[in-house]
Amino acid sequence: MASRGGVAELNAAFQPRTFEAWRVLRLGTREVIDAVVAPDHRGPSPELAQALAAWPGAHYWADPEQGQLVLIRSIGPARRERWLFHLVLFLLTVICALGAGAALIGAWYPPEGPLTLTPAVGRYLGGIISALVGGGYFFAGLLNGGWREILPGWSFALPLLSILLVHELGHYFTARRYAIDTSPPYFLPMPPTLSPIGSLGAFLRLRTPVLDRRQLLDVGAAGPLAGFVVTLAVLVWGYHTSQPLAIGHETPGDFVTFAGRQISLGDSLLTLGLRRLMYPEAAALYLSLPAFAGWVGAFITALNLLPLSQLDGGHVLYALVGRFQSAIGFLTLIGLVLLAPSSPSWYVWVVVVLLVGGGRWAHPSVVSPERPVPRRRRWIGWLCVLIFIGTFVPMPFRL
Known about the structure:
By secondary structure, this protein is α+β, with helices and mostly antiparallel strands. The chain has 12 helices and 11 strands. The strands form 3 sheets. It has a 5-stranded mixed β-sheet with strand order 7-10-8-9-11. The radius of gyration is 25 Å and the shape is elongated. The termini are far apart.
């Protein structure tokens, strides 16, 4: 599977007999040299260390004890990114998150859209179409000076988008560390007439295949781990600024109001522990905007860490246990369906996960699935499992 270009590159960059064996793979716009280093050059030797420092790409030791070294370099012209498109998506998400934050504190109320025409027309169009048209009214209102009304939502938008951005940058920079061809983050704006958080999250695309389970673990885990650090800080800040309510309040636990309508929030082990630690006498907690941003961040972290298909949790679990991820993913899917009668939003997430995974809950194979994650790196995956257990909310919303 070696190519002449790969062999020539090896001969030019490394001394003779540096490698005992190697193979050269072309993965999209990347060339991967999977080599076994000769015993005299492991460690590495000064000569190999100097050659690796000059290597025009990425490298890592897949198995230092066995001398397995992976070299990756880009081939062909660099891809031109559509930075303006990504920026527009991000700015639209900022606007929608500001609108959601303003609605959460009652500074702005979503327009009713077509329901203002006649009751009959409103009933015919239905709630979803009404909300979509209301989204058009939302953006039209901003152009007519309504942008001032959504500015008070900054204390929700800023922490929420910080969590989402740090999460995606964790994926992005780790993928770049392995020279994987990856896109910048795509943010998904959602008008506050359709979503109380103003966004459907964000994602990025890996445009070249993942070589082995180590790469998959590091790239998959980097986003949730980085985002969780910010989430934890936002939760502590937000809970400090929230309003505890005395025993006897009709709605126990955490809650928010959106455009005057109360939304009760389910607990994860993390939010339950924080509330009991900071407000042991409170029966309920009216969340501040930063607190709700932190709650959403923790909830999104748990959703991403579900061990299914192309979600981050699917990446992590496949990296840890290989093909056994399929069985665990199936049991997870059954568990979500069983939770759905008590919390119907899980029906939606099951459909979304299956759409993202092309109808599958099993994770697709990497190029070299037989190579396990080195033992010294497995803690990264198990830490993700612990974060999932701490942030999962069985019944997220009670309207």
